[in-house]
Each structure stands twice: as C-alpha cells, then as structure tokens.
Amino acid sequence: MTLNHVPKLSQDNPTGCCPRFNPSEWDGKTFEFKDKPFVRFTVRSFFYIPLNMGSMITKVMQSVETSKASDKTENIMLSYDLSPWQSEHLLAVTQPVPGLENLQLSGSFLAKVFTGPFQDAPKWLAEMKNFVASKQKVVKKIYLNYTMCPKCSKYYGKNYVVAFAQI
Domain of life of the organism in this record (predicted)? Predict the structure, then answer.
C-alpha cells in the first residue's frame, strides 16, 4: 500500500450517496500514514448513539468543499468514542481547512472489515484486539470507519465497518 493512501472509492454508486464497498481491498491490510492531513470534529452522543452527526458532517463537509480540500477518490473518516456522551471523528483532507481543527496522523494501521448492526461495535473492538495480538502487534488505539450511511447500508443489504488499529 502506498504511503498516505487508502483504496479508492468505487465508481459503482446507484444510491448517489455512498458507493458500493469492496471489503477485500481493506480486510487484513496494513496502511501507513505519515503526516496525513485530517480535520477533527466531535459529536454529542447519548450512550454511544450519535445525536448531531448529520448536522456536524454537513457543516464540516461544507468547509472542506469550500476550501477545496476534499479528495473525491479516497475518502476515510475515522471515528472513536471518547465517552458514552461524545465521539471524535477524523476526516481525511488534502490540505488544512481554515476554521476547523486540523491535525496530521502518522503510524501503521491494521484494518479488519466487520459487518452487522452498529450495536455490535463492542464485539468488533474485542475481535480487533485479538486479531492484532495474533499478528504479534500491540494496539495503541482503534478507530472505526463507517463505510456508508444507514440508508445506504439498508439499500446494499450490508453494513460494512472497517476497524483501524493503530499499531
């Protein structure tokens, strides 16, 4: 895998929203980031259920689009629950975005694809820890990449989530 890149988005997009997801391009792969640019934002949650995700993504995406910092071919948003009441989200960008919290992410990330309802996230995290341990690696942090919105996962009949373990 090339430094700072993830698999390209599929051009197969019958919903006009989220494209089809190809798990074989992600599952079991290692991704290397060196100062990869992201914007960070937080979302209020109620027992891990996001409350204002849609409005925050809309707001952030407007700023990213206005700044011409969106990469339409490679898109990844890494999510992490800070507490039952708040989650953080890192959206990959091509350059810093004025007015948003910008950061750079570096490290090796081992990916594993899961399917199922969002309520299975605790099981996925436990399984991911075991998967990383089986590779004789140590987990620093695990992010989740929700590959599509709930409407699109219903349309496609699968809810793919990529666990990204920083190792």
Answer: Bacteria
Residue 74 near residue 3, CB atoms below 8 Å: no
Cβ neighbors of 15 (< 8 A, separation 6 or more) are 151, 152, 155, 156
Instruction: Decide: pTM greater than 0.90.
Output: yes
Phi, psi of 97 (to 5 degrees): -115, 115
Q: What angle do CA 65, 22, 122 make, to 5 degrees?
A: 85
Residue 135 neighbours by CB distance under 10 Å:
12
- Alpha-carbon gap, residue 113 to 62, rounded angstroms: 29
Q: Give me the domains of the chain, ranges plus CATH numbers.
A: 27-166 (3.20.80.10)
Q: Give the pLDDT confidence of 48-69 residue by residue, as tens digits.
A: 888 998 899 999 999 999 999 9
Q: Quote the tokens at residue 100.
A: 């948003």
